[in-house]
């Protein structure tokens, strides 16, 4: 450990003193000794004009450096510790983003969108049109920088395809008539320098509340989500001779995926659909990594208390959608009265909540 | 130490592990162990709506409790540690307070004013009139609560009396004509729950910058300050037979202070003025408590890098002014190009910077 | 007519030209000739910074001048014509006034309150407390000047006494629980320079809409109003030997009004109550001036489509209330579904809408 | 005249009454009679929510209709009269437009830009970058609609070419260093429904003041303007055998203009430049239409008090620039201390103010 870290000998001595006489003075002495001097430096930096911005940007660069220099990880530990304290949920404000928002913020949405690519202002305007909503968290020290944002479509019934949400027919989206479902179809973290701080769960909960207040007629809250690691996992399984997920018949059907344009061949699709859909259900529910769902998006929404609701074949035919999720999209459903229970069961027992629709795939041969 | 404090045995063990192998894992383990669980609780509380407000208010109550329960001091140590992090200068915004400010904030100024009492809205309006300025620090999580505010009068030459600043002749304060001096005549901390966090030095520096920008013609920045502990100290010296500050002749003159209305008797004042003024200069420069200036206001401004500039006889004839400061007011002068140097000399060598005017009193017999 | 008025000969000539050939050119020529040159001057004045403010202030002074100089009335006609155009309802915005409003506006409410005197900020704060609302119209060119404001109390059932509305028991006004009635208890025009332009009816209608939106549970909208010309009219009737309103018995009872403190004598009040209440009902419904209700407040609310609902004995015991309205207050009730009909009947046939409660007094002997 | 116009007989009668007795009553009667009932209708329409917007939009449509129905012109006269009163300079506010402005307003700039076409958001962002400014007038009743806007480049010395202003090299535009000249390079009216109301002169004057305040170092204010009717006029002169502007030699040189791509042929340009530049100077100064400068842009800036300063060969090589202005751009210079004098001389004697630079072309053979 370098000289900016707490002095090991001093720490041991003060720890002993604290054990011998655990009082105010010994506690303060020990606490102060264990706080690395670099923390004082970061706090001092933050005092300057735009200090917070500089620190967040510095950590972004620093994280790249740490990858090749693991000995610097303790520094990032302290930096992350400070940033977690500063970006506590209590210091975030939610803002609705719409066409009245300053361009300096809107252009960041185009830049930061991480799920469904926006090519420019025209794409953005569609996502802020009638029956569309967008919300972001902001911190007072980064006034023009969203920390995270979520895009929502208000529709009638569960949506299964991304296209009509991000490129709607202008005729069909006139008023707020007859919507009963809010679809969270894209959620993007914006600040690489704040990696490791979780904003998404707070944002979703807050947005559900905002929407309930504005549209009391909404009864369903659900995502329409990619399954971004599905095909990577599938490749691993295909490479794994002893995979318990794949049958020989599966393997032969899946070989069609190596054909270019399989997704536009009706014939191929008819063969692939039942196999991929069933495997995807298994993947979402049963594939694990360190005892947690293999897919990061599954991990996120299940951790928030959602349940796996429905798989949508060819929900996303974009290049990215095909290459990552085999064109499938999944709905994670936020049932307000079971979110708490699902969350607890997931965290404590690793239980995955899913619908009957999904269970059919799991039970099928 | 109670159960919410770090476990002494675990801490010693982890400290030893860290000494044996000072790496990322041992550092994280130790750092995490030393952080009292109550800190997590406070951070969780802060996430709720108006959480910050609740915590600041809680600490206000808690500080009263701690007075009689010193065993609770470690809890306050953690709370203060968190609040210092959250109320870092980088998260504060300065706001000019004037007659366009919402009443909900203005009424707090009347309530929090700690130096020169305001009886109500009329007094307040005078302090926000022509050639008067008021600035406050705010935190985004306490939108209607000033953390600290300072009142400034723009005048020509150093001001020596408080009356014309807080109750100006409406005729004489018309425009901004001919002002060259900014007098900081009152600075008040507002949040008892944030005691121990220093805002004043940052505020004064920021206000000097704001004023320089708005009024390039300003050349002098000075306070007009009470000497609130002067008479308490004087009593102690009078009681102290071996005081090195007082001569026998001083003692007999000072006995006049026990007469009611000494301050309105021209005869008494003529005798008292030279004695009190000289003693006050000695008090400010030489009286110490724990190696620092005895007077808290002296400590504050000297620590910021100001110098003691001028003593003003009968600058404050209010009951409070007479009973605390013997009616004297002092100017602490912020000379922009010597603030840094003064601050360093004060902090490192305990040097008190003062003007020739003051040195005359110190050298006089 | 002075030289700033249209030239009579030119006007006659152009009027004849227009009659002979009523086309675009003759119409423009005539229209231009009839527009007094002073109108151009006023429009030019309005272009300057704060021009609108200056013109409104100028008219305030001018109206005083006109009283003694009727020959200047044509100038005021033009000025009022312009101001009516500029202060068209479409250019007014409604704002809710509360304790977050800037002091510079709030102090004007204290100054302009014309119905129930406010002695200062404490009185004002009570009127902006729980279950109280205040709304004003503003014009973009007079940003800190309310044009008119109305004060509202949200209560349960019709209010009959002003005291609990303007000086409520802090204990009893905690939440918004159980309110079903909005009482408009004070409405004040603010700008003497805009006399002759009617804002009140638009404001009341707008406030009813705002309140319905915020509190769907409100079912009754009513005023609690003074009858400011009642006692002046009563004096005239007493002086009028042939009054058809007064009986001999009435006259003898009413002589008690000349006693000081009649209102605090239980004995006098018992005699006066039935007589005054009945006469007041007759006054409101039947006393006329130029074929319209004698009382200006009656004229205003009936013209807006309200009905006379209830008389409240000793509703206002203030000096002003006793000397103008004999302590009586009246509720004008705005029944949303009959406002239009009442307004039409009032304007076209002079019909006064009133409740059964009132009709009892009218029929009684 | 239709039935919505003033009754000719009544008007003549009231005009006679006014001549016989020119007093308040006769004046009011005549004034009221001459005001067409449709004016009341428009005023009533304006009272509704978004009424002003509707009326401005209605006039836009109406103006198209009037073109083919001259009998409707009196209606437009009244409408314009009202709109002039409502959109009086005193009711307009200036706003700086930058990248912090809401997208809903920014997209209108792209749409309304009438001088130098913007293809989208990227073009717009360049015009709002470093050393660029944009200002617009707004009216409180049309919050998201600029009425007129002007684009300004801060440069060093007079600019002669449009390209570097609207598509600057990102490297060369870093700070505000060394700028001494504000170039107004584009000014566009936005509301077809407000045609006939002059905003431009007020906007330019206000922007000069704003810029002087923000950048005291600016010493020159000038336009860089197209000469949009130059080539149309030139065609007319070429067709006119007796033109006094053209020599036979000119005519033969100008025949080169009929070649496609004349502007990219160095040879052609060398022949054309002296002829076109000289003719353009004559055109600007001497070509007239109804006793005023032939070119509408010349009329506008000369009317505002500017002088013709400099002609810039190949200042605008865009298709539009070549086809309208033969690629020339002109600087109209606003010398603050001669604007008033120039304006008076132009309005009263028709005097065209121009520089020595221009006079050289006029005197040359």
Number of E-type strands of chain A: 9
Low-confidence stretches of chain A: none
Helix content of chain A: 40-55%
Per CATH, what is the topology of the largest domain in chain A? Aminopeptidase
Distance between the termini of chain A: 56 Å
Strand residues, percent of chain A: 5-15%
CATH top level label of the largest domain in chain A: Alpha Beta
Q: Structural class given helices, strands, pairing of chain A?
A: alpha+beta
Radius of gyration of chain A: 24 Å
Question: Any idea how many domains of chain A?
Answer: 3
CATH arch. level architecture of the largest domain in chain A = 3-Layer(aba) Sandwich
- Please summarize the sheet with the most strands of chain A: 5 strands, mixed
Order of helices and strands of chain A: HHHHHEHHEEHEHEHHHEEHEHEHH
Q: Work out the largest interface and the residue count of each chain.
A: A-B, 43 and 43 residues
Q: How would you describe what is shown here?
A:
Four copies of one chain form a homotetramer. The first copy, chain A, is an alpha+beta fold and 365 residues long. Chain A has three domains: 8-89, Butyryl-CoA Dehydrogenase, subunit A, domain 3 (Up-down Bundle), CATH 1.20.140; 90-223, Aminopeptidase (3-Layer(aba) Sandwich), CATH 3.40.630; 230-363, Malonyl-CoA decarboxylase, catalytic domain (Aminopeptidase, 3-Layer(aba) Sandwich), CATH 3.40.630.150. Chain A has 16 helices and nine strands. The first copy, chain A, has helices spanning 8-20, 24-34, 37-47, 51-68, 73-86, 103-112, 121-127, 163-166, 200-214, 230-239, 248-254, 266-286, 296-303, 319-325, 339-349, 356-363; strands spanning 92-96, 132-139, 148-155, 181-189, 220-223, 288-289, 292-293, 307-312, 329-333. Chain A has a five-stranded mixed beta sheet, covered by helices on one side. A two-stranded antiparallel sheet of chain A has the order 6-7. In chain A, a hairpin with a 2-residue loop joins strand 6 and strand 7. The longest helix of chain A is centred in the last third of the chain and has 21 residues, at 266-286. Chain A starts with 7 loop residues before the first helix and ends with a helix. The relative contact order of chain A is 0.09. Chains in contact: A-B, A-D, B-C, C-D.
């Amino acid at each position: 450990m370098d000289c900016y870290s707490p002095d090991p000998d001093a720490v041991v001595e003060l720890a002993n003193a604290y054990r011998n006489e655990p009082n105010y003075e010994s506690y303060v002495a020990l606490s102060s000794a264990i706080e690395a001097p670099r923390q004082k430096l970061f706090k001092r930096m933050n005092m300057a004009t735009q200090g917070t911005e500089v620190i967040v940007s510095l950590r972004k660069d620093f994280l790249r450096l740490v990858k090749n220099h693991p000995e610097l990880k303790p520094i990032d530990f302290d930096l992350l510790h400070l940033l977690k304290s500063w970006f506590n949920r209590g210091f975030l404000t939610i803002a609705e983003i719409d066409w009245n928002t300053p361009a300096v913020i809107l252009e960041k949405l185009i830049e930061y969108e991480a799920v469904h690519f926006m090519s420019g202002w025209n794409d953005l305007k569609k996502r802020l049109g009638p029956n569309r909503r967008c919300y972001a968290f902001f911190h007072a020290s980064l006034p023009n920088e969203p920390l995270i944002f979520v895009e929502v479509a208000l529709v009638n019934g569960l949506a299964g395809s991304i296209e009509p949400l991000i490129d709607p027919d202008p005729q069909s989206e006139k008023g707020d008539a007859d919507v009963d479902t809010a679809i969270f179809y894209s959620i993007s973290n914006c600040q690489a320098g704040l990696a490791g701080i979780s904003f998404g769960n707070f944002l979703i909960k807050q947005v559900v509340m905002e929407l309930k207040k504005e549209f009391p007629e909404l009864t369903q809250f659900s995502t329409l989500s990619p399954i971004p690691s599905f095909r990577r996992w599938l490749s691993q399984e295909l490479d794994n001779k002893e995979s318990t997920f794949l049958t020989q018949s599966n393997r032969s059907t899946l070989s069609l995926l190596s054909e270019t344009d399989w997704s536009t061949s009706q014939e191929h699709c008819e063969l692939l659909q039942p196999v991929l859909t069933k495997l995807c259900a298994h993947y979402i529910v049963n594939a694990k990594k360190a005892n947690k769902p293999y897919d990061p998006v599954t991990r996120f929404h299940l951790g928030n208390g959602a349940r796996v609701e429905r798989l949508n074949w060819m929900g996303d035919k974009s290049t990215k959608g095909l290459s990552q999720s085999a064109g499938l999209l999944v709905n994670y459903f936020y049932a307000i009265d079971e979110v708490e229970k699902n969350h607890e069961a997931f965290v404590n027992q690793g239980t995955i909540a899913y619908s009957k629709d999904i269970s059919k795939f799991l039970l099928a041969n």
